[in-house]
Amino acid sequence: MAEKRVLGVPSPRVEGEEKVGGKAVYAVDVVLPNMLWVKALRSPIAHGRIKRLDIYKALAAPGVAAVITGAEFGGALIGKKIIDMPVLADGAVRYIGEKVAAVAAETEDAAERAVDLIEIEYDELPVVADIAQALSSNAPLIHPNVARYKGLLHEIATPSNVFVSLNWKKGDVEEGFRQSDVIVENSFSVPAVHHAYIEPHSCVVQVKSDGSAEVWASTKAPFAMRDQVGSVFQISPASIVIHPCYVGGDFGGKGDSNEVALCYALSRKTGRPVKFLVDYTEELMAGNPRHGGTIKIKTGVKKNGLIIAQRMEITFDSGGYGAYRPQGYLVGAHESFGPYRIPNSLIEEKYVYTNRFPCGYMRAPGHPQGAFATESQADLVAKKLGLDPAEYRRMNFMHDGDHFPVGESIAHVKVTEALEKALQVSGFRSAKGKNVGRGCAVGNWVSKGGESYAFVKIDEKGVVTLSTAVTDTGPGAYTVMRQIVSQELDVPLDSIRMEVVDTTRVLKDTGVRGSSSTRVHGGSAFDAGKKAREEILRAAGRAMNAAPEDLLLNNGGVTHGRAERRMSFAQIAAANGAPIVVEGHYANPKEGPETSTVAQVAEVEVDTETGEVTVTRLTTAHNTGTILNPLTHQGQIDGAVVMGVGYGTMEDLSTDESGRVMTASLGDYKIPNIKDIPEIRTAIVQSNTGSGPYNSMSIGETAIIPTAAAIANAVEDAVGVRITSLPITAEKVLNALRHR
What we know:
Elements: H1 16-20, E1 36-42, E2 48-54, H2 56-59, E3 64-69, E4 77-78, E5 85-86, E6 92-93, E7 99-105, H3 108-117, E8 119-124, H4 131-135, E9 162-170, H5 173-179, E10 182-190, E11 202-207, E12 213-217, H6 222-233, E13 240-243, H7 258-270, E14 274-277, H8 280-286, E15 292-301, E16 307-319, E17 344-353, H9 367-385, H10 389-396, H11 415-426, E18 436-446, E19 450-458, E20 464-468, H12 477-489, E21 496-500, H13 517-544, E22 551-554, E23 557-560, E24 565-568, H14 569-576, E25 580-588, E26 595-606, E27 613-624, H15 630-649, E28 679-686, H16 707-719, H17 730-738
Parallel strand pairs: 1-14, 12-13, 16-17, 20-21, 27-28
Antiparallel strand pairs: 1-7, 2-6, 2-8, 3-7, 4-5, 9-17, 10-15, 11-12, 11-14, 15-16, 18-26, 19-20, 19-25, 22-23, 23-24, 26-27
Helix pairs in contact: 6-7, 9-10, 9-16, 12-13, 13-14, 15-16
């Protein structure tokens, strides 16, 4: 094997030149002959029955090819796991912004004008505006027929607005509380927040006369999209071809297929291709943001600080539907207790319907919500006991082979080392100025599995082509895959051609999800690279009449040392009589066995006259495996930290009592800008363990998990007030200071 020349070296993105040069093709860039534009009429009320819907003026408008309503879908519903959402509202609306009709017209302007001509009347129903109202005994049922939905996680004997109720436990939590010396109970709340990706949802769909279709869409999961759309129309998913497009940001939000299903229906009805581009106001009022929720946590400890029992009740606001969660629940919520040894634990997890926007997955789904409560609680328990918050954490941390609070044992967990590094690099215990505080918090992410295919082809010109069906949503999957093949074949990185193929070329691909890109898609590239290496050595052996073990592969060719003969890849492929083509495959749905860990220290300065909180520095320490590309690795950390700062200090997709979004533009919905970003210090604790190629580990989710809690802990350290609801705004801090 050649000496490592590619891995561990900062490598620019393979697609970077196309993107900055304007050559990259996104779904919105796709234009087909005779294409129509689609626009949707959306509900102005949060809850009601559709009394009258008249589309005839819209149908007669200039340039209109078709108008469609929910009645034309025959009651069909769509969803990732829980199938409870109509493509268009059918008889009832359940949130402001829900699509009730759609127009396909010759131009975007014509479609918008026709939408304004649709006449609709509603019988308004009482609005269930929040979790408390949804749980009240006299709350109106948002989904009276919930028990009949497909994909439910459990039987629902008596319909209510609670449609998912899960318990995750270990030991006997009540007995643990009886054995505890000190009990601490607190409540927290977290808001819904949007992904704020640059590119809104968009798609182009062309349905053929036989019902098959071609699709270009902003999606992270083409194969899941085929399944969802195929289910709505009762057609084979394989008859829907998803063509590759670049995705302008995802962060968990580009996995739904509702717009594609709507466009399928309109394309089938008109016999023409159609395009739908969602504008950003629609994104903010009717997208699939991170779940808001309420969290109650109760911790029982011994006087020396050892945790004996912990219980959490976490209730998520699912909004009008539950269709946007791939597993039906948030995969991180039951890991909310983090990397601690807790012998008796219980997490009660509920999802309720409200008349708000339906929520879905966002970076580390469920983790930041739960971690805000758990890591805030850790400081509060330590304060109650008179212990140093870092020491309290350290004495309760998991170590290799320990069991998660409500899960299986984990072979590799280095949170102690990560926290020690964060404390050291941040100067956690050094002197501070007036109204300056530091807070620490930790988190972890267990690597996710999946399935992926990759192909390597070496042609008669010696060109190496790496083919994949994965959609790179921005983290740099193509770059890492190319680095891996470059390493295995010992060829220059720039010499490898990247080809992204449509869904007809592979059997399955689970898509980009849960920080699994390097493990899963890198795994298929590693398998393909290894097989290509073996195959080219065999072909060279045949051409040189030598055993493969006597040959050396390096720098785009194969050398037979004893015979002092060398053949290039081009010569070997020519001698082979055909290009060398191999298929790489990775399939492992299991999580772990390692967990990536993070420890953060936030430093803040609080203006006690205004309550303004300035995050001046954020130290983030990570336990990782082999870093394949330091450039993209650091990019994942930086991006997640900035999202965590936004979650902790400013972002809030709020609604009023009528269910209307109050922040329906990027002028009102605040995300961090350059002035809000603190100094970021990164520290790495590297291990030789990891489930990805070359012992690599997940990195994309961890840095967002503890940030908000670290900031909250720092604020209390600075001025002595505890903020228990996100975001931590100047108004909340000032109010707390006045009532201190």
